[in-house]
Amino acid sequence: MAGEAVSKAQLEAGTCLRALGMSLSGGDTPKSQEEIVAAIKTQYPGLAQTSFVCGDTRGSLATALPSGFWISQRALKVYFDHADNLVSSPHDVTFVEKAMFSHFGIDDRNGLLPFLYSGFDKSRIAGLCKELARGAIEKGDALCCSVFCEAGKLLAMHILAVANKIDKLLLSQTGGLHVVCVGSVFKSWQALQPGFEAVMKERGPGLGICEVSLLTLQTSAAVGAAALGAQAAECPLPMDYSTYAQTFYTAKFS
C-alpha cells in the first residue's frame, strides 16, 4: 500500500516517506503498536522515517451495539420465543414472520435453522434489518418499532457509559458532544430516535451530557491515520475537520 501511495504521488519508486500513518485492526494497544512499528523498521528499513500505528475503531458507534445484525437477531429471538410458547410477545409477530420467510426464502420457521447454525452467515442475517426498518418506518409495525426503540436505547447507553471520560471541551462545543456514527443501520435513524431520546433525556443531563450531535463520516480512517503519522513526525498536515463529517441529528436534553 505504501508503494501504491508513492506511485499515486508520482514519486520515484523506493522513495522514503517522511511519515507513515496506519489505522489497523489490532493496533489498539501500545504493545501491538510498538511491535508493528518495529516489524516495519526491520523488514522495510527504507520505507519511512517515522511510522505511527493506531486502531481502526475511530472511537465511534461503529463498534457499538446494536448493529443491523443485532436488530435482526433480536427480532428473530422475540419471534421464536413467541412461536415456541416460551415468552409471549406483547406485539403481533405476523410482519416479522413474513419478512423472515421472504428474506431467507423459506416456508416455515424450521427453514431458518441452517442459516443460524451449519450455514451461518452474519451478513445475510443482518440484511433482514432493512425489511424490519421498513416495517417500523413505513408500516408502523409494533414489534419492529419496539426492537428499533430498544436499539436506540442501547446506542444512548453506549454514550452514557463513557460520560465520565469525556473532556469537558467536547461537551461545550457548538452542537454539544459530537458522535461519529458508522453503518447502514443509521439510515433508519427515524426508528432508532425515540429510544435514543428517551434514555438521553432521562440520564444525559445528570451525567453532564445536555446536547448531542450525531454525524456520518465523509472520509476514511486513512485520512486520520495520515494526519497522526504526520503529527508524530512533527510535520502536521493542514486539516479542515469540518469537511470530514456531516451532522444528521442534533438535540438538547434537559
Automatic annotation (TrEMBL):
Signal peptide: none annotated. One of its GO terms (molecular function) is N-acetylglucosamine kinase activity. PANTHER family: BADF TYPE ATPASE DOMAIN-CONTAINING PROTEIN, N-ACETYL-D-GLUCOSAMINE KINASE. The lineage of its organism: Eukaryota, Metazoa, Spiralia, Lophotrochozoa, Mollusca. InterPro entries: ATPase_NBD, NAGK-like. This is Phosphotransferase. It comes from the Eukaryota. It comes from Pomacea canaliculata.
